[in-house]
């Protein structure tokens, strides 16, 4: 029996085989490409990398991607909580239907969502025409990017918070009510703190996905440099110009943002496990 | 035990009735505006010039080759990711080894990397400008702007889907049943096929379903590596973009409607699985 230092002994077979499959596919599909991107960055060198990223157009694109993701995630935080609460706590006609529909953004390809939202919000589309008299333009402005990212990110918050609401014991809310708390006070001081870690996790997942989103955004954004041009699109443009170094520089900047958010998500989960043992 | 005064039905563990109705109204309104409206638009735009125009658009050689390519890509990536997911879940849940948490983080990595960055990374690895890519080109192997690149890009973005569904389920089921099978003399493969696989089949199907939906619909990563050669490297989402940019709205939305129907089918099967086999699926439904 091979009981190495790295692995505690187990009677079950197949560790070598399964571990071999994981490492082979993981390396080919994920690690080697990511390594190639980082390696390219090392070859370019930090000074040149910085000078390539440090232009107004790239900063605007990175700031826009992050800002729009933040706006959409905050919006989804509120409406995701509302949806999760309504779906778990209330019984109404069509509840299961709405519950199933929440996953639509996961199932619908982003390009399909992108052209559909553009058709809706374009100046001659039904929503665009309805909003025009109010002086609101959505398609081909930053608001269009928000709408697309709200669509993409909604399920992350709902599906993270929903199981936690399902597991909430009614005892706590009853105790709070027995002690004389009014309902809004109970919600604010008893229910909301329990949901906070799940809300934060959902928010972070939504943010991570939105920052890098491409398919649903490029159709509705209008893609005007410095105004509505998102960072992933800038990578595509650089690649089409065969400017691989510049594309790699933006890619590395985005990868660092992803790593930071991955760390944040893990930190939230460690913190919440320590705090209340949920999520 | 307790006497509830009938005249004063103060809600204790729920909200007052008007508040409830308001919240339900808001939630349904939100879903209608943000989810249903785009979905309805896809079909309305596809049928704008009637059924015939829509079907004709789908029967064009370009559309047919896009549909074929998408099906082939999914037929390759989904089984590979299923094998990977099973292997990953087996190693992670049945054994204790150092660096397990790090391995799980690596498996989750594609979730937080932009699809465009994934495509870019692939190009830097095997594109013509890299040393490895130059070697491949010298040996007449095309990966980027060709079919293998599309498969690799799709595998990257769908990588964690099956593993993510299987790991929580297999953690919950523990190791005792497999150990018992081995004690009774079953071989490793036999215990896998007669004990493990039946336990995880619904979770596996669930993961495969989600993986397939993403594989057929992936746009960003594939757009970067496909090169967009008509009839050769255009998957359905890429073809939709090309048609849309050429102002061929009906054709673009007709292809989009096919993908939307597929999404609806995915949701239907997913909901059926959740209602029927909720106990055998992962406790956390994060995606």
UniProtKB/TrEMBL annotation, chain B:
Keywords on record: Membrane, Sulfate transport, Transmembrane, Transmembrane helix, Transport
Any single Pfam family the record assigns to this protein: BPD_transp_1
Annotated signal peptide: none
Annotated protein name in UniProt: Sulfate ABC transporter permease
Entry's Gene Ontology molecular function annotations: ABC-type sulfate transporter activity
Cell location: Cell membrane
Gene Ontology cellular component list: plasma membrane
Chain ranges passing through the membrane: 20-44, 65-92, 112-136, 143-163, 203-226, 247-269
Listed Gene3D superfamilies: MetI-like (1.10.3720.10)
Xref: PANTHER family: SULFATE TRANSPORT SYSTEM PERMEASE PROTEIN, SULFATE TRANSPORT SYSTEM PERMEASE PROTEIN CYSW
Cited function: Part of the ABC transporter complex CysAWTP (TC 3.A.1.6.1) involved in sulfate/thiosulfate import. Probably responsible for the translocation of the substrate across the membrane.
Record note on quaternary structure: The complex is composed of two ATP-binding proteins (CysA), two transmembrane proteins (CysT and CysW) and a solute-binding protein (CysP).
Membrane-topology annotation of the record: Multi-pass membrane protein
Domain (ABC transmembrane type-1): residue spans on this chain: 67-274
């Amino acid at each position: 029996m091979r009981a190495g230092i790295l692995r505690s002994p187990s009677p079950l077979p197949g560790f070598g085989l399964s571990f071999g499959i994981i490492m082979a596919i993981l390396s080919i599909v994920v690690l080697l490409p990511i390594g190639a991107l980082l390696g390219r960055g090392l070859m370019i060198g930090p000074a040149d990398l910085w000078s390539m990223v440090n232009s107004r157009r790239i900063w605007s694109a990175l700031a826009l991607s992050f800002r729009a993701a933040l706006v959409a995630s905050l919006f989804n935080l509120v409406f995701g909580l509302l949806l999760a609460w309504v779906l778990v706590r209330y019984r109404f006609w069509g509840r299961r239907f709405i519950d199933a529909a929440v996953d639509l953004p996961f199932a619908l390809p982003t390009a399909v969502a992108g052209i559909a939202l553009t058709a809706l919000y374009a100046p001659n589309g039904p929503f665009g025409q309805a909003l025009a008299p109010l002086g609101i333009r959505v398609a081909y402005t930053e608001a269009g990017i928000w709408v697309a990212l709200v669509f993409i990110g909604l399920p992350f918050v709902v599906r993270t918070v929903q199981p936690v609401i399902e597991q909430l014991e009614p005892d706590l809310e009853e105790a709070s009510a027995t002690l004389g708390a009014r309902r809004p006070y109970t919600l604010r001081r008893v229910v909301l703190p329990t949901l906070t870690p799940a809300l934060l996790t959902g928010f972070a997942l939504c943010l991570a996905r939105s920052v890098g989103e491409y398919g649903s955004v490029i159709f509705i954004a209008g893609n005007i440099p410095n105004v509505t041009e998102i960072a992933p699109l800038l990578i595509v443009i650089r690649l089409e110009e065969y400017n691989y170094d510049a594309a790699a520089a933006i890619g590395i900047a985005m990868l660092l943002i992803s790593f930071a958010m991955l760390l944040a998500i893990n930190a939230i989960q460690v913190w919440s496990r320590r705090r209340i043992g949920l999520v | 035990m307790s006497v509830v005064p009938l005249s004063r039905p103060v809600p204790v563990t729920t909200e007052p009735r008007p508040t409830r109705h308001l919240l339900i109204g808001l939630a349904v309104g939100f879903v209608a505006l943000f989810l249903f409206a785009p979905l309805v638009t896809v079909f309305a735009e596809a049928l704008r010039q009637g059924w015939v125009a829509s079907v004709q658009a789908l029967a064009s050689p370009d559309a047919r080759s896009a549909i074929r390519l998408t099906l082939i890509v999914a037929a390759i990536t989904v089984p590979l990711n299923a094998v990977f997911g099973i292997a990953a879940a087996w190693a992670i849940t049945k054994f204790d080894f150092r660096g397990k948490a790090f391995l799980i983080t690596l498996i989750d990595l594609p979730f937080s990397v932009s699809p465009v960055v994934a495509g870019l990374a692939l190009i830097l690895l095997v594109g013509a400008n890299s040393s490895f890519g130059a070697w491949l080109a010298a040996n007449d192997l095309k990966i980027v702007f060709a079919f293998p690149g599309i498969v690799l890009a799709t595998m990257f973005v769908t990588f964690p889907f099956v593993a993510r569904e299987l790991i929580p389920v297999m953690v919950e089921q523990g190791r005792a049943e497999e150990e018992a099978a081995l004690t009774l003399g079953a071989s490793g493969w036999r215990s896998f096929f007669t004990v493990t696989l039946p336990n995880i089949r619904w979770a596996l199907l669930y993961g495969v379903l989600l993986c397939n939906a993403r594989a057929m619909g992936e746009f960003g990563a594939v757009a970067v590596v496909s090169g967009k050669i008509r009839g050769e490297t255009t998957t359905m989402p890429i073809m939709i973009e090309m048609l849309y940019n050429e102002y061929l709205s009906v054709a673009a939305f007709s292809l989009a409607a096919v993908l939307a129907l597929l999404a609806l089918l995915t949701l239907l099967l997913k909901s059926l699985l959740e209602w029927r086999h909720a106990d055998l699926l992962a406790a956390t439904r994060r995606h």
